[in-house]
């Protein structure tokens, strides 16, 4: 079967996903335009509903500009002002700054070179015009017991250069004393009310014992350098923007790792990352943009909420017929449990080394917790009332990933958007306590490699499009789930079960790439419809009969691509009989062993498919462009293949030694089979409960009538 392994590269990113009403019932889908470009335009979902998906390129460079000042690291000793720190005092040589005890006040634009140790003092930048201040950290140790060691009150911009070959440390205390109790500023070891840029090739180590490590109330830009942050709350914050061009960044945070918080302006609250190396351990979210998050490249290792092992235990939606076993009918076997037995309730994450106090995540813009002159971060009342969010990559609006290497281990979703997620490239290794990838609106995968080895639901969205890439999903509930509404775990989880309910208008559209699913719940689950025009889809599971490898409410129209699924028979569905590509749905009397080959050949001995299911199975669905009306075919099990298996599919080689199960001719778009031959499609629940050749196997879902296509009778038509 040499046509099952397909790939499609893509370079388009999500801008808009809208679902709108249309008249009539139309079923069309576009195919990839060419190698290197995946174009998804319009596809009908179900009767009376059309999903219109428009994609266009967006890069980090479209959202942020690094100007000459941002990247300048050089300085002239003759013109720069030097600040020599000596324990509790400082000496200033040059203009624009004064020293009084342990306080250095910079009042004019220019370059200031800092070196030495300040054991309990402060660098204050207060420039009343729009001048830029260039701070060169040339081997400094800055500490302040009750405030921010670096406090930028006002300036046009501050550029902080980490001098080559130097190590620089900044440490604050656990309790701050505020000059203005109402303002409660500063709130980080390095705190800026102006745009702040960090560049250079030296090292910066920041310990935020009070609250945040590095925080800007405007833009925060990282050009380069080695930066290590430990924080009692958030690691890095840029209210309007966080932009990273490059650098080696390590963060241990009791709140979020990196965040941008402006939720009042649509063009702010953005995180844009071009590259760099990120090692983030956070109690809450790893990288969070209040609006958009765009990543073009870089290497990411993110652990949030203690990782997936600390996720809330969830039960999947297998509660339908509790006695249904994997063989069909009442076999006395309880359904497999969801959520994973190894998942436990998340404990409080231990403090990062040298960081005191644990703080839950606060809503951006929340009122300060303590209006007194002294405050401690771990007494913040606003954060105590908020439910914890422990997602890997998170955005209030769109997440766009154009490249990068990601290792994500999250107690919650690994990627989460309250709007849209677009992945055009990148390499992902994901362990998630909840969803691997979640979007309230559209999840679009057009390229890259994604390996979700642990999740509750693998890929979820109001609509989902897959036009390229190589995607593998392991899920304790549904592998791919098209639903509607948002996924507010705190508000919509009942008894540990996700209540992300479907509106019936969603669309799963597959036009390219490869998708392999291993699920305990449904394999492909659409609370609307499915349109498949290309690509390769392989589904292993479920084994319990109260879930199905395919589960859709509307229609499943297949016009191209390769579909091979093996799983239970109790809720068996196949593509809709209005499809232009032919399909075969086979139900076995008894459960077949995992790894036992299934082979489909035509009358000339040409292999249509050879497949080794990863789990035990009692039903198989195969759809291929090689199936032709009027053709004669034989389905066999067992035997061997000399080919090479990829995700259980043999792309080449010869099949031999199998046992013929059934021979048949194709006359309808869906040919329903059991071990006696072709069976007549019927309405309702198939052969009824009890271990007949279908039990519930092969009937339409009891709650859905005939909307799921034309299911077979549980036995031969009688």
Automatic annotation (TrEMBL):
Keywords: Signal. InterPro entries: Cthe_2159 (IPR025584). It comes from the Bacteria. Residues 351-392 have a biased composition (Low complexity). It holds the Pfam family Cthe_2159. Residues 320-341, 684-700 have a biased composition (Gly residues). The keyword Signal applies. Residues 310-396, 478-502, 682-718 are annotated as: Disordered. The keyword Signal applies. Residues 1-22 form the signal peptide. This is Dockerin type 1. It comes from Paenibacillus auburnensis.
